[in-house]
């Protein structure tokens, strides 16, 4: 599109609630996007291009930019576009929805000059095809979130999926069972904790995962029902995505994540003590030996010793075997 409109660069932008979701321009360094975010270039009172936006598929250009700038010329944005040599051009709104905005633009440099009527006509013709491509990409990203949620659900994982903006895009049934005022809640599309200090820690581990500062972060929550472990895992970043695909998985593990009767059922099935049944139940939920020791208030050596006894009683040699047959028993009991 850039060459067809005589433009130094073509730009596709998606702006969501309070922040830029996606800003891609041909032949433009990442510093451009960082600079745009730093000056809050998504705001109409900052960016004359945003202020000049019209209805979907209506082209606006320098004539409209001039009118906005005559009333309110924002120095920060003017410095930005002049620094990146993209002051002129034309644009089109592709979609303007409650939580997201999509636009296509031809960015002209000083050498390109102001757009011509023919160049703007090309932009007008390209718009519908660009919107079709956006809708397909969004569908693929949402489908990816659904597929991942279904996989986690099938494995009975208590998991919450967050997109690149930190908003919740999926919650498994097992996680829904653990949500509450003592743990965490989904409020206005975000994951929050009731206590301010806990919420600050929660937002910190989510932020670390989103920024990939720490690929895995954990937070212990203390409740009257016992401790619950939250872990945030960073998913691989996609080079071309609008931000709706899952970016972070937050898992929840609790001693009561499974029914309180399961330790007794496991004990009855394998001839285990109550304590041994609880250890197997925790293993099934995905807890490590160290985590089980923390939950039960004993040493890792004590857990290892108990597991050796459990292996003998269950006639297995490895934890994976133990978890597999324990899951089968739980499923039989649930059926």
Automatic annotation (TrEMBL):
PROSITE patterns the UniProt entry points to: PAS
InterPro entries: PAS (IPR000014), PAS-like_dom_sf (IPR035965), Sig_transdc_resp-reg_C-effctor (IPR016032), Tscrpt_reg_LuxR_C (IPR000792), WH-like_DNA-bd_sf (IPR036388)
GO molecular function: DNA binding
Domain of life, per lineage: Bacteria
Domain (PAS) ranges: 144-213
Pfam families per record: GerE
GO process annotations (BP): regulation of DNA-templated transcription
Stated name of the protein: Response regulator
Lineage of the organism: Bacteria, Pseudomonadati, Pseudomonadota, Alphaproteobacteria, Sphingomonadales
């Amino acid at each position: 599109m850039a060459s067809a409109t005589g433009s130094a660069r073509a730009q596709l932008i998606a702006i969501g609630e309070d922040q830029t979701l996606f800003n891609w321009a041909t032949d433009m360094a990442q510093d451009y996007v960082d600079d745009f975010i730093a000056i809050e270039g998504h705001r109409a009172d900052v960016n004359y291009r945003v202020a000049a936006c019209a209805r979907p598929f209506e082209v606006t250009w320098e004539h409209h930019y001039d009118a906005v700038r005559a009333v309110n010329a924002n120095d920060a944005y003017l410095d930005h576009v002049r620094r990146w040599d993209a002051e002129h051009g034309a644009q089109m709104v592709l979609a303007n929805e409650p939580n997201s905005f999509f636009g296509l633009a031809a960015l002209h440099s000083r050498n390109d000059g102001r757009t011509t009527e023919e160049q703007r006509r090309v932009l007008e013709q390209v718009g519908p095809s660009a919107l079709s491509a956006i809708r397909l990409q969004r569908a693929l990203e949402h489908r990816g979130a659904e597929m991942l949620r279904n996989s986690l659900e099938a494995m009975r994982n208590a998991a919450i999926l967050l997109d690149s903006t930190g908003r919740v895009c999926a919650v498994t049934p097992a996680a829904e069972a653990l949500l509450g005022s003592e743990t965490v809640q989904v409020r206005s599309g975000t994951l929050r904790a009731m206590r301010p200090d806990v919420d600050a820690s929660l937002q910190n581990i989510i932020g670390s995962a989103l920024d990939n500062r720490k690929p895995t972060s954990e937070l212990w929550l203390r409740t009257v029902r016992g401790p619950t472990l939250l872990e945030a895992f960073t998913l691989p970043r996609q080079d071309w995505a609008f931000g709706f695909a899952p970016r972070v998985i937050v898992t929840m593990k609790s001693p009561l994540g499974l029914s309180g009767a399961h330790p007794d059922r496991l004990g009855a099935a394998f001839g285990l003590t109550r304590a041994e049944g609880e250890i197997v139940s925790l293993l099934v939920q995905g807890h490590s030996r160290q985590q089980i020791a923390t939950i039960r208030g004993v040493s890792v050596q004590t857990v290892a010793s108990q597991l050796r006894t459990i292996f003998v009683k269950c006639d297995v040699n490895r934890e994976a075997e133990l978890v597999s047959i324990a899951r089968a028993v739980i499923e039989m009991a649930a059926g």
